[in-house]
Each structure stands twice: as C-alpha cells, then as structure tokens.
Write a structure and sequence with these properties.
By secondary structure, this protein is an all-alpha fold. The protein has one domain. It contains 3 helices and no strands. The longest helix has 27 residues. The protein is elongated and about 50 Å long.
C-alpha cells in the first residue's frame, strides 16, 4: 500500500527507506493478523516474555518514524506542487 502511493504519485525517494521500519511494519501486520484470526488475544499482542517495555517502546517509535516519513514526503510533494508536473 505504501509503495503504491509512491508509484502512483511518483513521490521521490523510497517509500520505506529504513530496514527497521520495514521490519516494524511487517511485525505490525503479523500482530494484526494474529489478533484478527484469534491466534493471539489482544491483551497479549504487545506483551510476553520476549516483550520488554523498552522493546515495545522501540517498536512504537519505529512505526512513528515511518508515519512521519510518509507525512513529510506527501506534504513536500503537495507543497512543491509536484502533482502539477
């Protein structure tokens, strides 16, 4: 979906330039699917023996940074009137 936005609007740069963002997005998709298909209760989605508070915070910050990248890229595109080219 994100890559399609870059493709359709011919946004400059990479839609997901950092590998850590790609991993976090993939992990989010897995969590969503596990919860949606009842393989994982929602209250355990970000909890468990392998999920420290620091690990969850780092995961959330990666997703925040990806979201910021997307918003800043689209904003620059619109502000620069690139859609008129």
């Amino acid at each position: 979906m994100i890559a399609r936005l870059w493709l359709v609007y011919e946004l400059p740069g990479s839609p997901i330039p950092k590998l850590s963002w790609r991993r976090a997005l993939g992990e989010l998709a897995e969590i969503r699917n596990d919860v949606a298909h009842a393989r994982l209760p929602l209250n355990l989605a970000l909890n468990g023996p392998d999920r420290s508070a620091d690990a969850v915070a780092a995961f959330v910050l990666e997703l925040r940074d990806l979201g910021r990248h997307i918003v800043e890229s689209v904003t620059a595109y619109v502000d620069g009137n690139s859609y008129l080219a």
